[in-house]
Request: fold
Amino acid sequence: MGKNRRKHRTVILESRPSAIDGLFRDITVEMKDNGYGEEDIFAVHLAVEEAFINAVRHGNRMDPQKSTRIEYSVDSRKISVSLTDEGEGFDPEAVPDPRNGENLLKTSGRGLLLISSYMDEVRFNDCGNRVEMTKYKAAV
Amino acid sequence: MESKEPKISVEHLEGAVVVTILGERLLEDADIRSVQESMMGILQQAPRSKLVIDFKNIRFLSSAVLGLLIRVSKKVSEQGGGLRLCGINPKILEIFRITRLDKIFDIRPDVKSAVDNGGQAG
Reply:
C-alpha cells in the first residue's frame, strides 16, 4: 500500500563507487515510504549501482576532478533516476551482448544488460553520458 | 578507499578450500582487487585446488564481482583445479541467470553440497 510521498532530489557524487551508499539508504527509505516491495528496491539498487559504476569508471574514468549528477523522483507509482557524468559519452548500441559466444567469458560488459533487465524503461541521451531509468511499482 | 576489515575467511573442508566472502557486498575496486588477490594467492600456493566460494553473506552483487569470478575461474581452469559457488540467495542467483553465467559456474545450494564428493573438480 504506502502513502503517496512524492520526493524529488538531486545529488552530486564524487568519482568513487562507494559514494553511492548514502543515496541508496535514502532511496530505500523513500521507496519503502511509498509502498515498494523488496524486489523493486533490490532492482533499483542494482541498476543504479551499475549505472553509477559505469559513470565513475567509464564516463569519468575515475577522475577525482569529475563528478556524477544524480536526479531522482519517487512516488507511489514509479521511481525515475537519471545519472549524468562528465565524460564524452558512448554509443550504448555498440556494446556487445555479453551473453553471446565468447563474450560470456569476458570479465566486463554486463552493466547495461543488468540495467535494462531490472528497470522498466532505460533511455540514453544522444551523447551517451546521461541515462534515465524508470521502475514502476510492482503490484503486490 | 579500501576498508581495512578482512574481506574473506578461508577454511579447509574435506579436501576443498572454502572461501567465504564476509561483507554483504563488494563495491570499491580496491576491495574487489583485495578479494581477487587473496583467491589468486590461494591458487598460487595450492595449484589444482578444489575451490568453493560461499556467498551466504552477499546481499548485493555487481557486475564487477562477476568479472572477478570469471578471472578466478580462468585461473582455476588453467591449473586443472575446480571451482564451485554456493550459498547464493535467489535474488543474486537471478543475476547469474540473466547474464547466463549460471551455465558457466557450478552453483550448489550450500557448502556441504559444494564440497561433496571430496569437492572434486568439474
About this structure: Residues 118-122 of chain B have pLDDT under 50 and may be disordered.
